[in-house]
Amino acid sequence: MGTNRAVFESVAYSARCQDCGGQAQWWGVQVLDGGRLRWDTECSCPVCGSGMAVCGGELPAGLRSRMLAEHGPARLRVGASAPNAVVMRVLRAVLGVGLGEVRDVLSGVLAGTHSGTLPEMELLARRLRAAGIDAAAGRPSLP
Length: 143
Known about the structure:
With 143 residues, the chain is α+β, with helices and mostly antiparallel strands. It is built from four helices and seven strands; from the N terminus they run E-E-E-E-H-E-H-H-E-H-E. It has a four-stranded antiparallel sheet. A three-stranded antiparallel sheet has the order 6-5-7. It is elongated, with a radius of gyration of 18 Å.
């Protein structure tokens, strides 16, 4: 994926309308744009006709799980010759994890099992490439 190209995944869901309390239709999108992850939502209420858009914020855990279930997890892959210390430094900076936790994440990355949403994995891949590491994000191919 290109370095500056936006990467996104979306999910639709129902939730209470903030104006009338009816069931509103919501759409949320996680976007990697400009080197940052962003969660944007918008809604439309068929009961009262109100609509709203909220830009920015964190992807709620329940909707992240749903997005992963609907789209499937993306995986981060690094080149076999990637220096572990550099990969760990980038992972710690991006994920905000400690030394003990980053070792577990590194293990998953090297085994090809570390996964998340496509925008999350692409953010890691871009940061690793900026540090000189051969890295890619994507979904496993179907057999």
